[in-house]
Amino acid sequence: MEIDLKKMHEKPPYGMIAILFFGAFVAILNNTLLNIALPSIMTEFSVKPSEVQWLTTGFMLVNGIMIPASAFFIQKFSNRRLFLTAMTLFTIGTALAIYAPNFGLLIVARMIQASGSAMMMPLLMNVMLVAFPIEKRGTAMGMFSLVMFTAPAIGPTLSGWVVEHYSWRTLFEIVLPFGVLSILLALYKLKNITPNRDVTLDVFSLILSSIGFGGLLYGFSSAGDKGWGSPIVYGTIAIGTISVVLFVIRQLKMKDPMLDFRIYKHPMFALASIISIVMSVAMFSGMILTPLYVQNVRGISPFEAGILMLPGAIVMGLMSPITGKIFDKYGPRFISLVGLVITVISTFYLSKLELHTGYYYLMALYTVRMFGMSMVMMPIMTNGMNQLPMRSNPHGTAMNNTLQQVSGAIGSAILLTIMTKRMESAGAELAQEAATSGTTSGDAAAVQQEIMLKSMLEGINYSFLVSAFIAVVALFLAFFVKRVKPNQPDFVIGEGSEKVTSSPLEPVKE
């Protein structure tokens, strides 16, 4: 069966895309569900914090291995087969987690889940790029952003409520029927619309990619817990860096690479990647530093901390389709500049928190920050993807998702390190002041507690200030963004091959 792209662009397959959205939302929501449940799992299986962390670290490592390989899978297999395989793996992992009798099997279950969910975002993005014409891509990718940003933010709030009232296994029990429903809907409604070609997997590239991106993710993610001086941390970062360099060199020499780095010859895609990396660092900083302040400085419960961040997620989700429509009409520069100005200002105000900053003031500030970010990520990313030839879409989506994972881990590790160092120096200064003024002669425990809270607050504020300057870098780069207007493709897509009836999708300079 052949599908005419022109005809599909006139009437996009909304029902099919809705199924993909549903499956992706369930898979991504699951990624953040387990974080708040870790203490309960530690108690049930009698494991240490360093061991229980493997439930999230293992999940992340599998993502780091699978996402770079997604370009190969998307080109090799039909979107229907890939979605069904991914959701089946995810659902099997979820069912296994519900009944896992020991901690080892629970880790295996999470890794099986990850092998399926890792494919969802690149697959969904690639389908969106094929299914919609260029002039409607902004709106389509806005809906995509709704899934990408809302699902991870809802996770902690839902998880906090469930763990407070039920067993941690309930988290998986909630997800399982949705996974099964996604498979049934896909079997009934999903069709093949993405072009495929006969590509072969270079095993050595896969090994280098797995060691490289996996090593970087593990090393930087472990830095906050183990410290930068740990051999595990700097060792895995060094091995990961060397492997990534070798991987890139190998890809550039290959005629048919697993992940094509030659897409960076397109200037707007390269600029979009840099801005996305910078923004990922800034966004993850807010997601980590805000809960630290709310829970550790203010002493608010995890569930209330999740509620505080929920309006920001909702605003980001609601804004994504609106942002997409504005992008389609006016292009990326104006809306991204407005969003970045809001992000910089709100992040700067987050660097001025006090010991008793109001809960609702903080909620409003965090929501405004997310509102600003909702205007940046999707327009910049979509504009970059628009400059790629259609045949390079799988490589572009794989590259974007991989870099967001790695930059988020690196940025979080660096900002947490900055916070810790500032906290230590502030704590030493406050202790010296207390000793000089003689305030330590009273209730020593109370004084120590006050010093700890003030020093942590100082560390968090300083990290937010650094994050604000990072956002300024993105603001500067956004001035160089230019709108890309590619030619409309004239493709007829068959069951297993891409048939080009006119020139491939190449950029046209404005």
List the helices and strands and how they pair.
Elements: E1 3-4, H1 5-10, H2 14-33, H3 38-45, H4 49-52, H5 54-76, H6 79-98, H7 103-117, H8 120-131, H9 137-165, H10 169-189, H11 203-226, H12 231-253, H13 267-297, H14 302-330, H15 332-350, H16 359-373, H17 377-386, H18 393-437, H19 444-478, E2 485-486, E3 491-493, E4 498-500, E5 507-508
Antiparallel strand pairs: 1-3, 2-5, 3-4
Helix pairs in contact: 2-7, 2-8, 2-9, 2-10, 5-7, 5-11, 5-18, 6-7, 6-10, 8-9, 8-18, 9-14, 9-17, 11-12, 11-18, 13-14, 13-16, 13-17, 13-18, 13-19, 14-15, 14-16, 15-16, 15-17, 15-19, 18-19
Domain Major facilitator superfamily (MFS) profile: 16-486
Transmembrane segments: 12-34, 54-74, 81-100, 112-132, 144-162, 168-187, 199-220, 232-249, 269-294, 300-322, 334-353, 359-381, 462-481
Keywords: Cell membrane, Membrane, Transmembrane, Transmembrane helix, Transport
CATH H level, superfamily name of the largest domain: MFS general substrate transporter like domains
pLDDT under 50 segments (min length 5)? 490-510
Determine the number of helices (DSSP H or I, runs of at least 4 residues). Answer: 19
The helix/strand class is mainly alpha
Total tally of structural domains: 2
Beta-strand segment tally: 5
In CATH, the architecture of the largest domain is Up-down Bundle
End-to-end distance, in Å?
37 Å
Mean pLDDT reading: 80
How much helical structure, as a percent, in the residues? over 70%
Shape: globular
Element order: H for helix, E for strand? EHHHHHHHHHHHHHHHHHHHEEEE
